[in-house]
Amino acid sequence: MKIEFFSNVEGVADLYPIYEAKQYKPQWIKTAIDHHKSIKQGEQSILRCPGIFDVMKRGFIVPMWYDVKITTDPAKTGFAWEIASSEFQRMTEMEVITTHGNGILQNLPQRNDRLREIVKINVPWHVKSPVPLMFMPIPYTDDFDFESTIGLLEPWKSDELNAQLYWRKLEGTRLLKAGTPLYQLIPLTNEDVEFEVRDANEDDKKWLKKKHYWQLSTFDYYKLRGKLGEVY
After folding, report:
1. Are 188 and 132 in contact (CB under 8 A)?
2. How far apart are CA 46 and CA 25, in angstroms?
């Protein structure tokens, strides 16, 4: 089985590609390995817990693809953001960071230790996959300023891989650097998976152009998804 990731912004696949989750090593792993080497026979080590490391090795990591400063203030709603160049959005032809309106958020359960608004990082990545993929937070991370929402992506309904982040740094500015892991993406299959990461080819571009037309052609995009699935 093969999964294809393609970017409609040239250069992203070269600098900040999607990669296998087993390649991601948070800082605490080194400490755990050192501890494991030092313990005596019969003592416990976290490295012996298969549940933790099996999930950390499944699927793929989608990294941040540009630098952005995100600022929050408890006295204000929402968040402010700043990117390195004002030309970036024009060049990529994307709104690179957005949020969701109250119509979506008002009925979503909320914890008190995070920003109410979702920080939506729009990415240029799309996916071709014969199986659904699970969005999930980076498990057992070193970084607690944000975490991904959880969701199921069926590529025949939507092939976009935008990050939807719960923001937990409620005051101050965080520089979210390009290359920072945003979330983990796990194919829901037990089959062996081959994968490809690349720039969009001509067939990909034709698909995106057609899909854009279909999305703009109707008042009810959700009813259109069934037909999109057939075409996909």
Report:
1. yes
2. 15
Let me know: does 8 contact 204? Beta carbons within 8 Å. yes
Using an 8 Å Cβ cutoff, are 93 and 8 in contact? no
Four-CA torsion 211, 122, 168, 69, nearest 10 degrees: -170
Alpha-carbon distance 217 to 214, whole Å? Answer: 5
List helix spans (H) across the chain.
12-15, 27-38, 50-56, 88-92, 102-105, 202-216, 221-231
Give the residues across from 163 on adjacent strands.
121
Question: Mapping DSSP to helix (H, G, I), strand (E, B) and coil, where does residue 46 land?
Answer: helix
Burial of 36 (0-12, 13-18, 19+ CB in 10 A): middle
- Give the residues of the chain that fall short of pLDDT 50: none
Q: What is the pLDDT at residue 89?
A: 93
What's the Cα-to-Cα distance from 147 to each of 44, 119, 173, 207, rounded to whole Å?
Answer: 29, 10, 16, 31
Tokens of 93: 């032809």
Q: What is the token pair recorded at 221?
A: 């995009």
Under a CB-based contact definition with an 8 Å cutoff, are residues 229 and 156 in contact? yes
pLDDT value for 111: 86
pTM flag (> 0.85): yes
pLDDT in tens, 84-140: 998 999 999 999 999 987 777 778 888 888 998 999 999 999 999 999 999 999 999
pLDDT for position 205: 92
Q: How far is CA 223 from CA 57, 153, 217, in A?
A: 36, 17, 12
